[in-house]
Structure formats: structure tokens, C-alpha cells
Amino acid sequence: MANPTLPEIATTSSDPYVPNFTGLLQPTDDVLASRGGASAIKIYDEIRRDPHAFAILQKLKLEVVSREWLVQPASESRLDKKAAAEVERQLKAINFDRLTKGLLGAVLKGFAVAEVLWSSTALGWEAVAVKVKKQRRFRFTVEGELRLLTRSNTIDGEPVPDRKFIVHRHSIDDDDDDPYGVGLGSVLFWPAWFKRQVLAHWLRGSEKHATPTTVLSYDGAYDKKRQEELVGVLRQMANDTGLVIPKSVEADLLEAANGGGGEIYEKLARYLDELMSEAVSGETLTTNSGERGARSLGEIHNEIRIAIAKAASDLISSTIKNTLVRWIVELNYPGAGLPDVWRDFSEAEDLDQKVKRDQTIHGMGYKPKSVDYINETYGGDWVEKEPETPEEETQPGAPAATANLDFADAPATAADKSAETVKHLSDQLEGFAQPAIDAMIEQIRTEFTEARDYDDLIRRLTGLSAKLAIDDLAGILEQGVTLARLEGHDSVGANG
Fold first, then answer.
1. What is the pLDDT of residue 413?
2. Which of 260, 300, 328, 338 is deepest in the core (most CB within 10 A)?
3. Cβ atoms within 10 Å of 128's Cβ, excluding its own
4. Could you tell me the sign of the dihedral formed by the alpha carbons of 76, 79, 83, 89, in that order?
5. How is residue 324 annotated by DSSP?
């Protein structure tokens, strides 16, 4: 059996569809390719000038950097732990959140570049700063090597040293052929462009129809000289508040019937906003104003938004691990494993739901092993409640001869025993029936949250009444009635 081929064969330099005239690549992004190639990347700055596009891109970035980041050693060995501690110290020193936010610029433009400033100290090499640079200053060769445009070389650029520049890429094409990446700018460009045209037409229409158009009409056939005189009167009217015309000339005000089409423009602008929201965050309910939806649907949309932010965070963490983290470890702790750098996207558990769950488990006959569980789960400093000792009372029907006798339990009347039995049975029935009752209430609550209006709620509740599962509750009640009947028979037999 032949050994596998080691080198890469399907390289960019051998791609017949990639133009290669100067040794430098041009982006495969269709929008950039049709507007000048890599030098046209500045057109994506126009997208960020749209308030809605800026808001959704900013939400993605801030959602990522708002999460706490952690450094996890590659193993439990002493060397790996020391390397992880050094990486964490240096990332804190360079403001890792700010670096992450800058590298997330690749989401819009396809790639982002950051320069590492090193310092050699007695303890080793330290990244004292990492500065994110503008994409317009960089090019890539057919081998994927980074080139820096300078004043002395504005065409091909200068090669850059190793361990100097971090390059993070984002590609909607999901391939590695284009070192420039393909950002969301190629998707957002047209909705943002069309929205600018819509707003321009909307403003022109509003300006035109804000004041009615004055129409002067006169008797007789078309008269060019007389028409020019009336046009002069209209121009004079633009600066004056009054108008003097002969009776043979009629003046009317022409107003737009639909207010200049503002409603149509507004709907179109909102539709374009929705397109941009879906492209960036995969949903619309958390961003677009005026949109209505059920609470459960809003929660689903929010989960989608967070999932996309987590994916972007994971890609950033991978880039950091394979560049800056690798360089810090190789320079200061040769032979150590690379620690993982990641952000925690786990959501805090709802304590109200946790209380209900613990109460249900307690009702089944279980309790925490120690009070430490309560302190660690709910916070604070709790101690176990002492059981209340009931006060002994002399029963009114007890004989006086028994007052000084040492009974194991104070004598009780048949009525007291019956009351205690009823209370015990009621408590048991309540505990067993509560899960079934909670399930029914939750179904009703779901219909309330998902109903669009009062009429829809009535229809939902009417349909729910035929679908509510009451078999479990009916079975529990039947068992309770049977047990109560048996207890009654036993009580009658015991009392003669």
C-alpha cells in the first residue's frame, strides 16, 4: 500500500480560476472584486454608517467580550500550569477583551490583523501590547503570506517577520482558499445600499409633499406668454405670504393623497433592516423595533443570537491559541503544551426553578446531605432549622388519675387522632398531586404567553380544555379517596 501524499496539491497558486499576475492575490469576494479588489475594502465602512447595521454588529461584538474568559492548562503537569499562568498574565496585561473586539472586525470585512509588540526582560519574552491595524494596509501572496503596504512599496508590500502579526479570518464560503476571507460585508452591502436609496427617496418625497403644490389655471387656449407671467407669480409667491391675480386666473392647492408614499418607504426600510438582522444574528426579535412575538419565540431567537456569538468567540479563541498563545509558550516555556483560551457562555441556572425542583425532591422523601448544599447553591450562610417541640396540654377529657403517670405519649381523644389522620392524608395527597397540577398550570401559562390577543386566548383555552391530561390527577385522587375510606373503617372498628 502506497504512503499518503504529504504536501498540499490543490494550492491557490495552481488554481486556474485565480488571477495571478504580480504574485499577490485579490479577494474572491464578488462585491470587492467588482469595485477594485483589495483596495476597495473601505466600501464596507459605509455599512457601519447605517445605524441598524452598526447596532447588530456591535451587539455581536459586545456579546462576545462581555463573557468571562478562562485559560485552561494543557495538562496537570507543573510546566503546563506555569505556561498557562504566564499566558493568562500577559493576556490580562494587553487587555484581551479589546483585542478580541478588534479581531471581530473580520466578521464584516473577512479578515483582521493585529501587530504584537514584544519586550525582552530578565524573565523572558513578553507581549507588552497588541494593536489591531486597518485591513487596507495588507495584502496576501499566492502562498498566503502576509504583506504590509508601506510608503516605499505601495504595490507589492513588504514581507513581515514571524511572530509579529496575528491574522484572524472569517469566511462565509467555509473554505481556506482565500486568505482575505469573505465577511458578512458581501451579504450586508446590498441591503444597506438599497436602504440608503429608500431613505433618499423618502426624504425627497417628504420634502416635496410637506407643502402643497400651487396650481394656477386660466381661461382660453395655451398661451406661452401668459404662462411665463404666471410662473413668475409663483416664484414670487415662494418668498411672499400673499398672491395677487386677476379673477380670470384660478389658484388651487394640489396635495398628495398618500402623504408622499411614506408608509411604503417605511415598510421597505424595515424589511431591509430585517434582512441585515437575519444575516448577522440569525434572528430579528431582539433587534427590530415594533415586531411582536410570543415570549417563547423571543427566547428562541435570543438563544440563536447567543449561539452565533459563541461560534464567533470559539473561532477567535482558536486563532489566539495558534498565534499569540503559541508564541508566548514557545518563547518562554519550550516543550510545554498549549493552554486553551475560551469564553464561558454557560447561562446561570434560574434559582426559582431550582427551588421548585428541590421542593419536589423533598416531597418525595429526600433531603440534602448537608447544609453546605444550600449555601453553595443559593448563597448566604444558612443553618438547619431546629424542629419545633409542641407544648404539652392537659386534655379536657383525661381522667385525673392519669395526671401523674409517666405515659410514652400523652393520652389523646378519638377526635384528635382522627384530625391528625386527616391532616396526614391531606398532606400526602397534596404532595403526590402537586406535579400533575403544576403540569396543567404550565400548559395554561404557555397558552397565555403565546396568545396574540384576547380572542386568540379564548380560542386557545377552549381547545386546551379538551386536551388537558387529567388521568394522572384522577388516579391520585381515586387512591386518596380509597385510603380515606379504609382509614375511616379502621377508626370505627377501633372505637367499637
1. 56
2. 328
3. 13
4. positive
5. I
Q: What residues pair up with 116 in beta bridges, in sequence order? A: 130
Q: What is the three-state SS of 359-370? A: HHHHHCCCCCCC
- How does DSSP classify residue 289? T
Count CB neighbours of 243 within 10 A: 13
Q: Which of 146, 15, 86, 167 is nearest to 329 (CA)?
A: 86
Longest dimension (CA), the chain: 134
Q: In which element (H, E) is residue 395 found?
A: none
Distance, in Å, from the CA atom of 60 to the CA atom of 281, rounded to the nearest integer, reads: 7
Domain boundaries, the chain: 12-185+311-343, 213-254, 414-494
pLDDT-derived band at 75, boundaries 50, 70, 90: very high
Q: Nearest CA to 180 among 313, 54, 32, 319?
A: 32
pTM for the whole structure: 0.66
Question: Cell 405515659 sits at which residue?
Answer: 407
Cα gap 447→295, rounded to integer Å: 11
Rounded CA-CA distance 77/81 in Å is 6
pLDDT tens readout for residues 21-54:
678 889 989 999 998 888 899 999 999 999 999 9
- What CA–CA distance (Å, rounded) separates 112 from 26? 16
